[in-house]
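User: What would this chain look like folded?
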Amino acid sequence: MDIVKTVFDKLENITSIEAIEPLFGGFEKFRMNDSVYPQIQFKIEKKDIEDLIEKGIITKEKLLSKKIEGDALSKLLYAVLWKNGDLSKIKHIIEGILGENEEDKDNGLVFYQFGKFLTKEVGEPIIDQHVLRAFGIYKADGDKEKIKKLKKLSLITKEHKELIKEYKNWLQTGLKPELRAEENYSYEVDKLLFAVGKSVKSVR
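Assistant: Here's the prediction, encoded as structure tokens.
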């Protein structure tokens, strides 16, 4: 799709985070809500997880202990995960932080990559269906069948592992060094591609 290619062509030639904002153009209504998804300021290191395992807060199965203890905030966050049915998802995030089972991962890839992102290591972005949809359409290079399939993308599976690798590589090599030198550049790129990918899904 021409509009996706145009965005990527422009992205690949800008040299500052400030230059990303004008690229939202017609994608404004698809922009990620910063109040719902504010920028994460902290990082989680492998040792942090290992300490939690040692204390019994995280089990050997990489899940939160059912006997959660500690401060009220920990209990409150546990309660939110429980109510949303998300307790099992923590395993994928933990494995991502620890860098475990990457080659064997067949599911939970979004959460696994989110865990890798939380380590704040260079080259580990957030990924989701919208970002991958935008990137995949860009890489499809006009192939109508591929684009048709990508527009329907809603669940990221092992089928998309190679696309995730390509996206991560593109973030490291496809953008100008001046942009990559700026702190949090991948977060700003992510917000733009989220809007682009979401807008593409809405096009019949």
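DSSP finds ten helices and no strands in the chain. If you want, I can go into more detail on any region.
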